[in-house]
Design brief:
Residues 23-220 form the Aminoglycoside phosphotransferase domain. GO terms for molecular function: ethanolamine kinase activity. This is Aminoglycoside phosphotransferase domain-containing protein. It is a single chain. By secondary structure, the chain is of the alpha+beta class. It has 2 domains: 4-93, Phosphorylase Kinase, domain 1 (2-Layer Sandwich), CATH 3.30.200; 105-297, Aminoglycoside phosphotransferase (APH), C-terminal lobe (Aminoglycoside 3'-phosphotransferase, Chain: A, domain 2, Alpha-Beta Complex). Helix content is 48%, strand content 15%. It has 10 helices and 10 strands. The longest helix is centred in the C-terminal third of the chain and has 28 residues, at 237-264. It is globular.
Length: 300
């Protein structure tokens, strides 16, 4: 990763008009370092420095920059003001705001409307196919001699059933974010913003919806409220089933992401424990009676 000192030199050369400025780390982020820039004239920006080996997660910084610009153009992301391609540093305008409350019905409706706007945007570069991403993460971890949990074989059997069921439905491809944790949303003064576009690309909107539902820990009522606001109508049993199946599958993706981190990360984070938490939740949901109901409802 580029050091803060190197970033300061590069930014000084790129933005001579800033004059004297300060750089301060923004907490959070496992695959990058975010720095708050404050110029002498009072302007604020965020510089995003890429982490080491992030390409192993399918992250392409050129694609991230391009999609960030599209997201800004449709009014759901901060403005990207520069991309230092050689060093893959993305600079965006700082937006004042605060965290969202994931259990608040008003927030859920706002998130649903934001996702609908994103999924209606023009085509963007990059692709995100959830089953392929899971397979890639498994292969990558093995390349680094990571031993997966013994439950992985059983998990892949269930994931195969989910993927086969989903493939029976007609699919559309749309711009998707693919990392809808609460920390990536920012409630501004007059709108909701979505941050951190490093996993974004063309994909299945239901992957976004399911990812949002699992990361917000939505119950059935929350899932239904999300879908009603997203669709603008009552969701069909098939639509709710697709949401739930991809909500469940999202946990397997998170678990396999963690085991890539087990192999490559130098951070003081217990990625094995994090991965097991998501793998066990995936298996709990996959073994529930509801799974067969959802599998049967898809495409009905």
């Amino acid at each position: 990763m580029i050091s803060t000192e190197q970033a300061e030199e590069l930014l000084s050369a790129e933005f001579p008009g800033w004059g004297t400025f300060t750089l301060n780390p923004i907490p959070g982020g496992l695959t990058n370092l975010n720095l708050l820039i404050e110029t002498g004239s009072g302007e604020k920006f965020v510089a995003r420095l890429p982490g080491k080996d992030t390409d192993l997660f399918g992250i392409n910084r050129q694609t991230e920059h391009a999609i960030s610009r599209v997201a800004w153009e449709i009014g759901i992301a901060p403005e990207p003001v520069a991309f230092l391609a050689e060093h893959e540093i993305l600079v965006t305008r700082f937006v004042e705001g605060g965290p969202i409350e994931t259990t608040d019905p008003v927030t859920i409706r706002s998130v649903a409307r934001l996702l609908h706007r994103l999924h209606s945007a023009p085509e963007v570069p990059g692709t995100f196919d959830l089953p392929s991403v899971i397979d890639d993460y498994i292969s990558t971890a093995k390349r680094f001699n990571v031993t997966h949990p013994g439950q992985l074989g059983e998990a892949l059997k269930f994931s195969g059933e989910i993927v086969n069921a989903i493939e029976r439905c007609s699919r559309v491809s749309a711009p998707c974010h693919n990392d809808l944790i609460a920390a990536n949303f920012l409630q501004g003064k007059d709108r909701l913003y979505l941050l951190d576009w490093e996993y974004a690309g063309m994909g299945d909107p239901y992957v976004d919806l399911g990812n949002c539902a699992v990361n917000f820990c939505m119950d059935e009522a929350g899932c239904r409220a999300l879908m009603e606001s997203y669709l603008g109508r009552e969701p069909s049993p098939s639509e709710m089933a697709q949401l739930h199946l991809l909500r469940v599958l999202s946990d397997l993706r998170e678990a396999m992401w963690s085991y890539v981190q087990v192999g490559i990360s130098t951070l003081d984070v217990d990625f094995h424990a994090y991965g097991m938490k998501h793998l066990e939740r995936f298996l709990d949901n996959a073994k529930s009676d509801s799974l067969n109901t959802w599998l049967g409802a898809v495409g009905a």
